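Below is a complete specimen:
___
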Amino acid sequence: LEQISFRSDFEPVWTVPGRDEAIEKAREIIATATERIYIGIWDEEMKELLDEIRGAAARGVEIVFLIYGTMRVDVGSVFYHSVDAITDRHQLGRSIDIVVDSRTALSGRLGRDARDMPPSGTGDGNSSSCQVVWTKNQGLINAIEGYIIHDFYLAEIYQALGDEIEDIFGKNMTDLRRRYRT
């Protein structure tokens, strides 16, 4: 062992304790962006980060969004993801995925709050807590960035072939989604 060269390049993965802290950490990492931001976000959280995102755009940062919902933004490249078929948000809460400059990432479920409650009588009464991580670990960043980019691919494919995709996989690809749910 004495002859083995060892170099520590440990980059921890930090668990973010709550939704408010996750939004604050998102603001912080967006403020550090110099080149590019990839972001998958719901309307509700987008409203809370819009000032920071506009600031990044003003600095010349490239921004590509996948917005779960319909909120219109005046910066970046935007793809929209229908929320009609996403039912697990009632149990797990909305998600957030952000990669800044391929150097830092924030990803996970924000937990369930009053805005996520299912219609009366359809929920199990259990709430979930925030399950968001923040990291500079390059392996994890690459995985999160790849996940977001694949969502961009799907959004573009869906824009080009919408009706054909629905004919094969169902509205909002529900047949395909059902196949891979655990």
In short: The beta strands are 13-16, 36-42, 62-68, 77-81, 95-100, 104-109, 131-135. Confidence is low (pLDDT under 50) at residues 121-127. Residues 138-169 form the longest helix (32 residues).
